[in-house]
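cache lookup: miss for this entity combination. No prior model stored, computing from scratch. Input as submitted by user K.M.:
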Amino acid sequence: MSILKAEKIKKKFGIRRILSDVNLQLERGEIFVLFGPNGSGKSTFSLILSSLLKPTGGCIKFENNDIRKLNSSYRSKIGLLTHSSFLYENLSALENLRFYAALYGLRDIKRRIDEFSHLFEIETRMNEPVKNFSRGMKQRLSIIRALIHNPEIILFDEPYTGLDELSAQILERELLNFRKSGKLIFITTHNLLRGYNIATRLGILSRGRILFESEKKNITADELSETYKRLIQNETL
Amino acid sequence: MKILLGILLLLSMLVSITMVFLVAPIEETMGVVQKIFYFHVATAWVGFLAFFVVFIGSIGYLAKKSRRWDRIAYSSAGIGVLFTTLCLITGSLWAKPAWGIWWTWDARLTSTLVLWFMYVAYLIVRYETEGSERGAVFSAVLGVIGFVDIPIVFMSVRWWRTVHCDLVIVERTGLTPIMLFTLLLSVFTFTLLYFYLLITKYEIAKTKDEITSLKEKLRE
Amino acid sequence: MKPFNDLYTLIKKDILDELRTGGTLISMLLFSVLVVVIFSFALGTTLSKEKELGGGILWLTFFFASILGLNYSFSVEKENSSIKAVMLTPVDRGILYIGKMFSNLIFIFIIELFTVPVFLVFFDYPILKIIPPLTIVLLLGTAGLSSVGTILSAISTSTKKRDILLPLILFPIITPVLIGSVRCTGIILLGGSLLEEAGNWLAMLAVFDVLFIVVSFLIYEFVLEEL
């Protein structure tokens, strides 16, 4: 049974239609990568999956229950990363993480923060205010923030933005570990190469529709790249 | 149904105006000026009724999130502000000949003024968030908070004015039965007018929504 | 108890943020002292004879100073959309309201505690006699101000006219609080007994506070979802 299911998701902002009838089934232990150009609706779709944004039509089901009925029991299972960092600029990295960890009601806050800050190699700068951080450092901290409560569903919107090669590798290593423990990982990106490497399944979103969906083993990186170009071009014509 | 209401309104208006200007006797002390009273009270009543409908519409919208409730609340707020404005103007016009001043910080006047500000703020929030669902939610929240606030505003303003102000205005003495009947008729007419305007504004809002969704279909 | 821990965490975060920047609180304080000074230029020091003027000056000052704080309290949550991430945690949305309400209450109250002595000195009032009863009025009035102020600042920061909109929508709604607080303050400044002469005003302030904390607690979630 799929852990997360999007059924006929529609989203409009005013008269602009962002998503039209998006259907998608996501399983535990998979890394689903959704490709798409800017403005294709990727970010909107991951926000809808997180329950933060309400779709105009359709529904999201978690283990066959509508998430609108699950409320906080669903919310706390989500690890969300978006283009907004969700960090308080004036607080230090440590204070930010402690704040979120406390709201999640975690017990071993110190151990978890130490572990993650070590993994993502920011432990030396934990006491600096976030506003002094570079884009990449902020991104690492946001990733830790999203994972701190050991979420079952990891939704990462453009996680590679601002990450250097090393941090990207660390991130991928951690995501593979999460995958092994049976979590669902959903990533959106326009970086075809990185996305292809980490994915177990992939899809292409353009103009609010999923135009292509495939197991990774059925497609090579070159084929993906070709398909992507063809679909995106068709759409823009 | 709207046409029927319109015909009824027209008849009621004709009768009311006849009653106010031709049948109802001229009041002894204030003279012909007193006739503004029939409009003043009726507009005040419609103002309250409108804000009550805003409250109901707001609660309905928050509970159901249906555009219908939002349209009712929004349409009613505009009419409410219009009639409260008329109420303040007619009150002021009446105050000048009656008490020699355009404005007095009488409890009822002051409360009405505060109310007016409250719902003008509602319309501003509405304007600032034009058409969005967010705007509908925000104004619904204001509609609820504002209405819950009304009794406290009235109470506090009354205490404020009656502690130090000796100016107690007794305006309802010496109403003859025919004057009372005219007043009630006028209130009834204005209530019909309110509902007629509400339906019209509701229809306009609905048409706007339909145009929007048509435009959207054209884009696709 | 989870709700109390959450409240503690939320309020601690707001206070930490203020300590790191210090900007808002200091500007609010400077602003309110400045307004008091301007009033003393304008009116001289003959205030004690004027019944309501003293209370009016104080509460108008507090109202405008609190606008500064209320506007900041939400723009910091929206700067990096942090409020969205907070909404994903299992914390109850009503608790988010109570937390913000208390943070605002604390900040505005601190401003008042510093402004009042300055005011009393400038206008030559007996400080020690006035401060204890005035504290009760300050607490009740400020609770009213921040109860509605918190939910309305969440609304105003999400619109285009953010800074100017808040006083426009807040002022009419909190008229009862202002009238009540000004009255009570006036009575205290004139040396009257608060409980005997202003008992009904205190009761009205308390009713307003409770009513609007409850109403806001219930409808805050709707506002949050549209931020």
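stored under new cache key. The two ends of chain B are 36 Å apart (CA to CA).
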